[in-house]
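About this split. The held-out portion is used to measure sequence recovery: a designer receives only the structure tokens and must propose an amino acid at every position. Recovery is the fraction of positions where the proposal matches the reference. Here is one held-out target exactly as it appears in the evaluation file.
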């Protein structure tokens, strides 16, 4: 029996019918690499059962202390039933991408049963008309409670349920798992009394460890190594109100090579800066179209993993946070990228001064009772509608995925797209998920706050296309200068030919002018999942 830490327990306290606190993904598999080129649901169950020993999350359930007087505990579930957690559905005809997103949103909107291990995987068949996906492929919609995993430990769970080759055998070590007895309320209350006595000592210890970071932060403010600007406090928008129980999800994949090319627009900027700029541009386009854009910049909370190497397989969350202004008040995409880069540099300096690990440690000694009561009052009083809520507009979390193809039940994983939990005051969240040579920007939103996901995903595409067009124009300038001496010797027609070719580069479409229209994605993006351009093991198997 292990007790949850403060941040993990906060996700349990925030759990309501309208805001289930789980995270997940949409995974697409191609069974062409599996034995016989086909995967049955029974094969998936057998595969999972053979590998459960590789993950601590799979068979552990929560036990809450009466009256939430202390943090809950993890125990090994004595009534674990794999078939309850792995489910099976099929899309109706025609089985296209939009239907998959709708089905995933419905599944994701339903809370998990916290009296069982808090996870569910739903196998979805019938993907017959998803662009770039061969017939016969299947999807898996995953849900795991945020109290059990963060982005990095979620990747470890993914690794436990996948192999590096389609024919890898199951683990050869015996499964030594043993169930535990569910503790009675008297035992839990006794433990909570002991923790209540010792918690002030833990708080003093954490305060002593955090003191050098606070001193460093004060010194940094005085010496102007970073500054606390009002731009870090975002204005309220349609996304920062009480949310409904309904969800919408969407996503697009982009080539990592294109993302890296965009970095050249502002030397020194990071890949994360590019993604934040894309999201900032998309939110600007969406809110301009709704005539609802604040004059002040919107901001994003960007989680930072502080998980050490020896904590790789541990359950729970080891993350701190950084506030990143998105530059939504800037129309020019290049200027917005430079602005975001300068602001994230400032935020990182402040986070480094405070100590990201110290920020996580402080949350571990927060009183459980007050945390639970505060979460319940915030929800029941609808404080998000009264301007009380997070100091940021949205979340943009970057989750690095495997750089090589992986397999489950012999089927190759073709694409992955992240899903995020929402709560009152946070009606829109973004996940950047990389896999092989692509990265997917996806979003989860309250359906009342964002009723038109097709339009918002087009805004994301348009924002990306604007930045890529600027990057290509920048790449073309050195090439033109290098060829300048040759132009004098060449016939007069050649420079005109070059100009003509340069003019053929398609200008990015404006999403604001095409709200109702359904648009064709740009050539550098692909409607999820993007498999047509990547030569996979599945395609090799088909050719054989």
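Reference sequence for scoring:
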């Amino acid at each position: 029996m292990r007790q949850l830490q403060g941040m993990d327990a906060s996700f349990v306290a925030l759990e309501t019918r309208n805001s289930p606190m789980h995270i997940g993904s949409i995974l697409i598999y191609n069974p062409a690499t599996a034995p016989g080129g086909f995967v049955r649901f029974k094969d998936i169950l057998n595969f999972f059962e053979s590998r459960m020993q590789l993950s601590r999350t799979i068979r552990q359930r929560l036990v809450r202390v009466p009256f939430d007087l202390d943090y809950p505990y993890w125990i090994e579930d004595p009534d674990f039933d794999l078939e309850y957690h792995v489910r099976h559905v099929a899309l109706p005809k025609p089985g296209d991408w939009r239907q998959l997103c709708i089905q995933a949103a419905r599944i994701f909107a339903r809370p998990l049963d916290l009296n069982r291990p808090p996870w569910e995987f739903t196998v979805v068949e019938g993907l017959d008309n998803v662009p770039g996906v061969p017939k016969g492929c299947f999807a898996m919609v995953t849900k795991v409670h945020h109290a059990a995993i963060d982005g990095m430990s979620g990747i470890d769970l993914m690794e436990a349920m996948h192999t590096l080759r389609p024919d890898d055998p199951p683990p050869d070590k015996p499964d030594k798992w043993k169930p535990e007895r569910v503790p009675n309320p008297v035992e839990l209350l006794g433990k909570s009394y002991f923790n209540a006595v010792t918690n002030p000592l833990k708080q003093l210890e954490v305060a002593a460890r955090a003191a050098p970071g606070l001193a460093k932060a004060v010194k940094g403010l005085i010496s102007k190594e970073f500054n606390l600007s009002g731009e870090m406090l975002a204005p309220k928008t349609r996304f920062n109100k009480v949310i409904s129980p309904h969800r919408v999800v969407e996503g697009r994949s982009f080539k990592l090579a294109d993302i890296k090319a965009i970095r050249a627009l502002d030397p020194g900027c990071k890949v994360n800066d590019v993604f934040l700029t894309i999201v900032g541009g998309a939110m600007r386009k969406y809110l301009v179209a709704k005539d609802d854009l604040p004059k002040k910049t919107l901001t994003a909370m960007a989680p930072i993993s502080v998980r050490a190497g020896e904590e790789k397989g541990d359950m729970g969350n080891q993350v701190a946070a950084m506030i990143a202004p998105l530059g939504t008040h800037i129309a020019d995409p290049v200027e917005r990228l430079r602005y975001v880069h300068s602001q994230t540099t400032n935020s990182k300096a402040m986070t480094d001064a405070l100590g990201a690990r110290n920020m996580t440690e402080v949350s571990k000694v927060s009183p459980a009772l007050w945390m639970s009561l505060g979460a319940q009052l915030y929800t029941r009083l609808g404080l998000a509608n009264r301007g009380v809520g997070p100091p940021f507009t949205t979340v943009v979390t970057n989750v690095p995925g495997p750089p090589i193809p992986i397999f489950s039940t012999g089927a190759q994983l073709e694409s992955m797209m992240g899903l995020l939990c929402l709560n009152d005051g946070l009606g829109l969240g973004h996940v950047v998920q990389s896999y092989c040579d692509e990265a997917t920007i996806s979003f989860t939103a309250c359906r009342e706050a964002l009723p038109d996901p097709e339009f918002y995903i087009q805004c994301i595409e348009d924002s990306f296309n604007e930045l890529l067009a600027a990057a290509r124009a920048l790449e073309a300038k050195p090439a033109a200068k290098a060829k300048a001496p040759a132009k004098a010797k060449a016939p007069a027609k050649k420079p005109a030919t070059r100009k003509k070719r340069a003019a053929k580069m398609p200008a990015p479409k404006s999403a604001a002018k095409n709200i109702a229209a359904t648009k064709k994605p740009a050539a550098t993006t692909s409607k999820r999942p993007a498999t047509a351009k990547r030569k996979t093991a599945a395609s090799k198997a088909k050719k054989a």
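Annotator remark: DSSP finds 15 helices and 16 strands in the chain.
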